[in-house]
Every structure is written in C-alpha cells, then in structure tokens.
Write a structure and sequence with these properties.
By secondary structure, this protein is an alpha+beta fold. It folds into 3 domains: about 30 residues; about 160 residues, Sandwich (Immunoglobulin-like), CATH 2.60.40; about 90 residues. About 25% of the residues lie in helices and about 35% in strands. The strands form 3 sheets. It has a 5-stranded mixed sheet, with helices on one face. A hairpin with a 5-residue loop joins strand 12 and strand 13. Helix 5 packs across helix 6. The chain is globular, with a radius of gyration of 25 Å. The chain starts with a helix and ends with a helix. The N terminus is likely disordered.
C-alpha cells in the first residue's frame, strides 16, 4: 500500500511540475491584448517585428521585410542621405482602422514642431498588413510611396545644424507607431529643397491608380457624375473599399452609407491627378438616395498614361 501511495504522490508531483512549466511557457510568450500566440503569429511578420512593434525604423537603403538584421539600421543621417523606413504595428490596419472607418495619418516633426502630415485610407491589398514601408528622403525616380512627397515638403524648410526628426503614425485618437532620427544639415539643406522642387514639378512614374476592390459600372458612373463640378475632367474611378460602410444616428438607425474611391482627373494644363474621395448615399428608411460627394482626401500628380492602366 505504501508503494502505491508513494507512486501516486510522485505522479501528482510530476503533474503539478509539468503544469507549472507549461504555465510559465504560456505567460512568457503571451502578449497583452492578444489571446494566444497562434493569433500573434498572424500579426507579427517576424520576431524582429514583435520586438519593434509600435516603432518606425530607418536606414539609408531600402529595408527588406524579414531581413532587417542584414540592413544597416540607423538613427543618424545627413541631408545628403536617402532615408527609407518600415512601420511596425501591434495589430493589422484592418483592426486598427475598424475596416477603414478611420484614416491613417502620418506626420513629420522637426525639433518638436510638426511641419507636415497626410492622411489616407488603406488599399484593399494592404489593409490586412501590420507593417508599412515608408520613404522619408528619396528622389522621385526611386520613390515607390506617395507619402514621401509630404515628408520632403515637411523637411524643405529645415535650417543648417543638427535636428531631431520625429515620424509618427496616428489612427483615430491613438499614436500607433513612432520613430526618431537625427538629421545633420551642417553642410546645408539645399538637396532637400531641390528634391521638394522636383516633387512639385514632376510626376512620379511609380504612381498608378489602385486596383479596384470591387467593380460596379453603375456606381462608377454615379461617382463620375458626382464629381463633375470638381476641377478637371474625371476619367477613371477605382473603388477601393470592398463594400459600403453604414453610418448610424444616435438612435441606432442607419443615416447613410459611405464608400471610398480613387478618381483620376485630367487637368486643363495637360497634367493628371489622382484624388482619394469618399462618397455617401443617404437612407430614408426604405431606400438609399443618389451618390454624392462626402469628403475629399489627398491628391497626387500621376502620369496621364497611368490613369487608364
């Protein structure tokens, strides 16, 4: 009997010890705000991403996702350097923006003073991402992102000397990522001013109309009709939301619905622009009304040959 009791006690000790180790493993790997690591694996692209969630990292060369440790990551640059970055988030853009209900706002500040910002809604092909590549100082012929033009403009008034530069990403009322670096302009900032001029006078060849998330020829025709009073001639519509977003009043009833699109315009001077615009349809309790302009977002110069691609 004592032999059996001894074995039972040994089994209980082993079981408790095993549970203790398992509990320690779970707690050491878990991240606040997420239920388990199987969910985290979909949020973070790598251990490096996990360690730097909520941060923006920078380099003088393009940063390849998953190979960050092979890149010279820097926090100090001169005005002659090109600067690329990656934004790492703690969650997907889809969750943080509540499926594009809220805009993403990127801003740049010099020595604590914000000098430029721009807002946008995520494209369907990127909304599930929890990271975003960005460019701070890159010439037009190398640029692949639209935000670089805003960053260059924000830096164009920088003076000689060393400055602290802060780049931040906000969604709704929350700052979801921040990065800082020192920019040494002791040799002058003429290059940045020249780049700003280039972005003001040249179209970026890499800028194209986004691929539509859905096609609806009747809605596209309504959108073209609703922007006829805007400057230029609307040539193409690309709907960038997968569907309508319902907006309710204080009583909880549907008031109207919205949808976002990119619209390509031809201008009188022969150039073209792409403008991101929100549209709405009011609801009378039974039916939705005509499509009308709701709000106008950012506009970008685009090569005219890219409008119809």
């Amino acid at each position: 009997m004592s032999y059996i009791l001894g074995n039972i006690e040994l089994f209980i000790c082993i079981l408790l010890f095993s549970n203790s180790i398992y509990s320690q493993i779970i707690s050491s790997n878990s991240v606040p705000g997420f239920k388990d690591d199987s969910i985290n694996s979909f949020v973070y692209t790598s251990d490096y991403h996990r360690q730097n969630a909520g941060r923006i990292i920078f380099s003088n060369a393009p940063i390849e996702l998953g190979k960050e440790r092979n890149t010279a990551l820097l926090d100090s640059f001169t005005s002659k350097d090109n600067i690329w970055g990656i934004i790492y988030l703690n969650d997907s853009f889809k969750n943080l923006t509540e499926s594009n209900k809220f805009e993403v706002v990127q801003s740049i500040a010099i020595d604590g003073i914000e000098t430029a910002h721009y807002s946008f809604r995520m494209l369907p092909e990127k909304i599930d991402q929890s990271f975003l590549k960005t460019e701070i100082i890159v010439p037009p012929e190398k640029a692949l992102t639209k935000g670089v033009k805003t960053y260059i403009r924000g830096l164009s008034g920088i003076t000689q000397g060393k400055h602290d530069v802060k780049v931040a990403v906000r969604i709704h009322d929350d700052t979801v990522a921040v990065g800082n670096f020192t920019l040494d302009c002791n040799e002058g900032a003429e290059r940045i001013k020249e780049l700003n001029f280039d972005y003001d006078t040249k179209s970026m060849k890499s800028i194209v109309m986004p691929k539509p998330a859905v096609r609806d020829i009747f809605l596209e025709a309504d959108i073209l009709n609703s922007v006829k009073d805007m400057a230029g001639t609307a040539q193409k519509v690309s709907i960038i939301d997968n569907g309508w977003t319902l907006v309710k009043n204080l009583s909880g009833n549907i008031a109207f619905r919205t949808i976002n699109a990119a619209v390509g315009f031809g201008k009188p001077d022969g150039k073209c622009t792409m403008t991101f615009i929100s549209f709405r349809q009011d609801y009378d309790g039974k039916n939705y009304g005509k499509t009308q302009l709701y709000s106008v977002g950012n506009s970008y110069d685009i090569p005219c040959e890219n409008v119809m691609k």
